[in-house]
Design goal:
By secondary structure, the chain is an alpha/beta fold. It is 26% helix and 21% strand. It is built from 6 helices and 10 strands. It has a 10-stranded mixed β-sheet, sandwiched between helices. The longest helix has 14 residues. It is globular. Its EC number is 2.7.7.87. This is L-threonylcarbamoyladenylate synthase. Keywords: ATP-binding, Cytoplasm, Nucleotide-binding, Nucleotidyltransferase, Transferase, tRNA processing.
Amino acid sequence: MTSVSLAALIAGVRAGSLVSFPTDTVPALATLPEQAELIFAAKQRSQDKPLILMAASAEDLWPYVEGSEQDEQIWKQVVSQYWPGALTLVLPASNRVPKVMNPIDPTTIGIRVPKSAIALKILSQTGPLATTSANFSGQPALLTMSEIDAQFPSVLTLESTAVEAEGIGLPSTVAKWTGENWQILRQGAVSLDF
């Protein structure tokens, strides 16, 4: 069992460990962005499936993306409408994004601010983290900390007393900016209106 307190989980992720915590969609596997290969290895995930950079606020994420002033205005408008929430935006990556986050196409990065009190509490103390759903690649997302603890015994999970079940069990909607408009890559928990 690797269930730990909130403080121990935060300390663990800062030290470079792989952790799991609830979000507003499905529980996340998370680590520091430069340690992202830990997630690919644990999930047995293909390198062509990039990870999401999750943070406590949009301000924490803007340094990781780059675009024209016009693009940025459009992105900020969407963010003000849907964040915090179950929407991941795939945007052009800045040089601050470690290549290991998206090994096949390091020119883009998915970013998201979850609508989850516990996730926001963790992210506000760790800074942006590389994240994805907690499951083996191709398998359904695990929905409880005990399932995650069983499948990933070396991952630090939040002890049940620290967890309020918030997730809806559906992944986030993923929308990619093409330079002109939005392309829906995955329809998830949010129905978009743009």
